[in-house]
Design a protein that fits this description.
Number of helices: 24
Strand content: 15-25%
Structural class: alpha+beta
């Protein structure tokens, strides 16, 4: 009514003073609008958060004007964006888009947090602190404390800047959450960021509305097209990828089996299948999907996998045709070294392609991959890893074989013929030796002899560098008694001792050392066939040779000084090996593999590149590094007889682990069974140079372990023991005399600290005796803990065994 009544008066006044009246009306209207908006703001603020509603309508001091606050918030947002980019997250499929998304994420959260309510900031900071780890928990708690202060202090200055800082801190904490838990991390980010954005929606929504709906519609359409394009391409390529992986795996198996033609065909088909898949998923129409978070990883993985698979399969197919390793054959005792050299380039191409594929697999790996894509990537990575090792081994072999076999000058290798019937730490004592010569791809056993000949030839001989040997080995005086050169469990140490002493025994510089025992020689007979040796009218076969050389020869020919049957058998076998035609390399490797695994055949070269190949093949005979717990029980004959052919041992390791303190307590029980009779066998077999009754086995038991010794007992009574350090582990010894037909048990009580946070690991290394040890391992948990898995083993110890156990409260 008032407004209606006033209209005529205002109309009259406007006619008289139009400018003044018009300006007055405008001022009044603007004042009314401002008052109305302020009232709505006050009402919304009072409903939303108590004193928070008064944050925007308090008088603004000069030092915190709106322009200043906007500048400060911008600075914090920029810092947050740069900090997010510095974390090197990979939300998309390309490095550039990863950086852009990280920048946008860091800046957006900080800006949204500058307008968010205290409750939203508190939730975001609390979630960030709860899901983080390490020092970032403290950082998250600091941010949470700042939120609580913000919520309780009414006149806190620069509240918008403080909110932006809290958001920036939360961004850093959230981006540094522990890896390997994608779902948890994604939920945490969604809750934290969602609360901040929801709380600041009054600021965000008006700005979003001001943007053109057409822009959002076009952007959404482009994203949908990119996703659909990638999905259809991947769907079409999936069959090709599956075929490529299957063909590649079959091709690799064919190559390992020596079927080069089949391998070349299958790998060629694999290459075609991978290239077909790459045309589908690597086309220009799928490139836009690389910049989409969560989608780009799928596109990148499929693109990299298909391209790398095609390259690897093609290189493998070419190599299978032109560098057929399995076609290499020793003919008339000679290996064609020119053909070996010609294989270097094709194998190098395969190795290069595999290295590239391995790098591609690493770049494609992402926790965001869908299960179907991750499964294909895992299959591909596994196949690449297997092939990389094989190709690397083949490349190394091709590189060093010409030198190893005398292609660039004659080579000489000392051969240790060992007899475990009289045990030494490495396996058996050296009863005889040989000299293996390599020239232009041909091997020959140019010299053989008995160990006593070496002992006579080296009066005054000495180790030229004793510092390279353990003290316990030096006490055996191998420089005087060549038979004790195998008195340490590390074959490279034995080889070094031979290298130092051989020139003082009338020999020339050596290129390496070979160790073999009768079991290894019997394995070689599977390649040559039976042999006949002088003085024995029965042919030695792969099934009878070891038994004859380890037991029967001493019983049948106790006083025969004319024959050294191990040397005679070795000479005959090596002559067949070095004059005839041998099967393909895989057949040779498979035949000799048991002897290698049991450490009955070992090779050592004094040339680093060749030694690296032997180490890669696991034929170098070196002690493995200590990784967790370690155990090796060694016997060394002190009666100087061949009685160890009748020795059997049982080794029991009862382990208790305290995961909280990383404490390990181990009770190693060694039971020595002596099956030798007191009479009826020659003195060389059952005699005893320690003055004990015939049939007594005098043996040293040596336990190698990283743990410390508590006690050594026999029958519950502490006995004398020795202790030394060898190869980064302790060696505890006890000398026992076991009567004929009896057994003796010695217990080693051990204790020490081992890191078991990732579980307990025990490696047990065998000693290649006539009769392999029987091993039993039982792992228990300390009170308050249980063994979740593993922890038990029982069986003959022929090869290295690894026993694992995991624990929980």
């Amino acid at each position: 009514m008032v407004r209606a009544a006033a209209q005529p008066v205002l109309w009259q006044a406007e006619r008289s003073h139009p400018a003044v009246v018009s300006g007055t009306i405008r001022v009044k209207v603007e004042t009314q609008q401002t008052s109305s908006e302020q009232a709505r703001s006050d009402s919304a603020g009072s409903v939303a958060g108590g004193h928070e509603g008064s944050r925007d309508d308090r008088p603004v001091a000069a030092d915190r004007s709106p322009d200043t606050e906007r500048v400060l918030v911008g600075v914090v947002a920029a810092a947050s964006a740069l900090g997010a980019a510095a974390v090197h997250t990979h939300p998309t499929g390309t490095g550039v888009s990863d950086v852009l998304v990280a920048l946008l994420f860091g800046g957006f959260v900080a800006v949204a947090a500058s307008r968010a309510r205290p409750w939203a900031l508190a939730v975001a900071s609390g979630v960030a602190a709860a899901v983080s780890s390490g020092p970032w928990v403290v950082v998250g708690c600091i941010a949470l404390a700042a939120c609580l202060i913000d919520a309780t202090v009414i006149d806190l200055p620069h509240r918008r800047v403080l909110g932006a800082v809290i958001g920036a801190v939360d961004v850093q904490v959230l981006l540094r959450m522990p890896t390997g838990r994608l779902a948890t991390n994604a939920i945490a980010v969604a809750i934290a960021v969602g609360c901040v954005v929801y709380s600041g929606r009054e600021v965000a929504l008006p700005r979003i509305r001001r943007r053109s709906r057409r822009v959002w519609l076009v952007a959404g359409t482009l994203v949908a097209l990119a996703v659909v394009s990638l999905f259809l391409s991947a769907l079409h390529a999936r069959h090709s990828v599956d075929v490529g992986i299957a063909r590649a795996q079959r091709g690799l198996r064919a190559a390992r089996a020596g079927n080069s033609a089949e391998a070349a065909r299958l790998l060629g088909e694999a290459s075609d299948a991978f290239r077909s898949a790459h045309r589908d998923v690597g086309g220009w129409w799928t490139k836009p999907s690389l910049v989409l978070p969560g989608v780009g990883q799928q596109a990148q993985a499929l693109d990299l996998l298909s391209q790398a698979g095609a390259d690897v399969a093609e290189a493998g197919s070419v190599a299978a045709r032109s560098a057929d390793v399995q076609s290499l054959r020793v003919r008339d005792g000679r290996l064609d070294l020119d053909r070996v050299r010609a294989m270097a380039d094709p194998l190098a191409s395969v190795t290069s392609a595999l290295d590239t594929a391995g790098d591609a697999s690493s770049r494609a790996a992402s926790p965001w991959l869908l299960p179907v894509v991750a499964h294909q990537l895992d299959q591909f990575t596994e196949a690449v890893d297997d092939a990389t090792f094989d190709a690397g081994t083949a490349s190394e072999a091709v590189a060093v074989l010409p030198d190893l076999l005398g292609g660039n000058g004659d080579r000489q290798y000392f051969v240790v013929f060992a007899t475990p019937s009289e045990a030494r730490d490495l396996g058996g004592f050296m009863g005889a030796y040989g000299l293996l010569t390599a020239k232009d791809g041909k091997l020959s056993l140019s010299k053989t002899g008995r160990v006593r000949d070496l002992n006579r030839a080296g009066k005054g001989r000495a180790l030229t560098d004793p510092s390279r040997f353990p003290d316990r080995f030096l006490t055996l005086a191998p420089n005087l008694y060549w038979q004790d050169v195998t008195g340490t469990s590390d074959f490279p140490t034995v080889a070094e001792a031979v290298r130092q002493m051989w020139p003082q025994s009338g020999g020339k510089q050596l290129d390496g050392v070979v160790y073999l025992d009768p079991e290894a020689l019997a394995g070689m007979m599977r390649l040559t066939g039976p042999v006949t040796v002088a003085g024995y009218d029965q042919p030695l076969t792969p099934d009878t040779a070891a038994s004859f050389l380890l037991r029967d020869q001493y019983a049948l020919f106790p006083n025969d000084s004319r024959h050294e049957f191990l040397v005679d058998a070795a000479k005959t076998v090596f002559k067949k090996l070095t004059t005839g035609t041998l099967p393909q390399p895989k057949k040779i490797a498979d035949t000799l593999a048991p002897a290698v695994a049991e450490r009955r055949l070992m090779l050592n070269s004094f040339h680093p590149d060749e030694q690296a190949l032997f180490e890669r093949l696991g034929i170098d005979g070196a002690l493995p590094p200590v990784d967790g717990d370690f155990l090796s029980v060694r016997a060394s004959n002190r009666g100087l007889s061949k009685i160890d052919a009748y020795m059997r041992r049982t080794v029991s390791d009862d382990v208790t682990v305290d995961p909280r303190r990383n404490l390990v307590h181990s009770t190693v029980t060694v039971t020595v069974h002596n099956d030798a009779p007191a009479s009826g066998l020659p003195s060389i077999v059952i005699g005893n140079h320690r003055g004990k009754p015939p049939g007594t086995n005098s043996t040293t038991i040596a336990v190698s372990t990283p743990l410390k010794l508590v006690d050594v007992q026999r029958g519950g009574v502490s006995i004398a023991r020795g202790a030394s350090m060898e190869y980064g582990r302790s060696v505890f010894t006890a000398l026992v005399d076991v009567p004929p037909g009896a057994e003796t048990t010695v217990t080693f009580d051990l204790e020490g600290t081992i890191d078991v946070h990732d579980g307990y690991r025990l490696e047990v290394l065998p000693q290649p005796l006539v009769n392999p040890d029987h091993l039993e391992v039982h792992v228990h948990a300390a009170p308050g803990w249980t063994v979740d898995s593993g922890g038990t083993h029982a069986g003959d110890l022929r090869e290295s065994e690894i026993v694992r156990a995991s624990f929980s409260r």
